[in-house]
Amino acid sequence: MTALQTHDLTKRFRDVLAADRITLSLEQDRIHGLLGRNGAGKTTLMKLVTGQLFASSGRIRLLGEDPLENVAVLSRTCFIQESQSYPDGFRPLDLLRIARDLHPAWDEALARELVADFRLPEKRPIKKLSRGQLSAVGIIVGLASRAPLTFFDEPYLGLDAVARRLFYDRLLADYAEHPRTVVLSTHHIDEVANLLEHVVVLDQGRVVIDDDVDTLRAASLQVSGRAGDVADFVAGAEVLRLDELGALATATLHRDALHDEEGARRRGLDVTPVSLQDYIVHRTAA
Fold first, then answer.
1. Is the pTM of the predicted complex or chain greater than 0.85?
2. Intra-chain end-to-end CA distance of the chain, in Å
3. What digits encode the pLDDT tens for the residues 169-180?
4. Are 223 and 233 in contact (CB under 8 A)?
């Protein structure tokens, strides 16, 4: 079943085309990565599909319905924004109580566990929380909501490496026990690569990659060795990136372009896989 569909979804802010005819179909009960550089349109897309922005044109279906002003659909979604603002007089305790009432599938026991895990001072005023503690509030709401469709927009800001790892571990563990559709926007691609099942990459408001992670991991290879040998071997092939350091070179190219992998090794060249992050960087670096 499809959790999210868009067709020719477009959003223009005066002279800025933030979303340019985006057509997507995200399967239900999978963890999807929404990736791209700053300003690529990730947050705009998430706000459009959760009914927080009006589209200039195009169509959206969220859990099979139009999400705009649709309480029945929006109550089954949870959108955690990295720039979320809260009333200064509120405390995390207040926010969690409100979230509990908003989300029908809320798990209070899980929320209590996460508060302890992230060492969140529940009774401290929001305005006195650190950036990392604010992020922890959003993460707790996003996970404990158990919403059928959950969006995390850069949820880790201000969190140290230990806290980020805690988030990834708790997300994966809870997803395994309670499958739902998760859309995770992040710049820490290598950190989340083992979580993601499917990836959408935006660049300047357009979809440039829309594929399963296993397919992307197998899409390219690196060939490295003496610069002259590398240059001779990849001559005529579409090279995604070429790095040279002194007498050595590394070429990244599509696997389809590497017709003779064993021949490369016979020449003394090293052939290695490309990380998901490096592949995406190479595809969007231009």
1. yes
2. 35
3. 999 999 999 999
4. yes
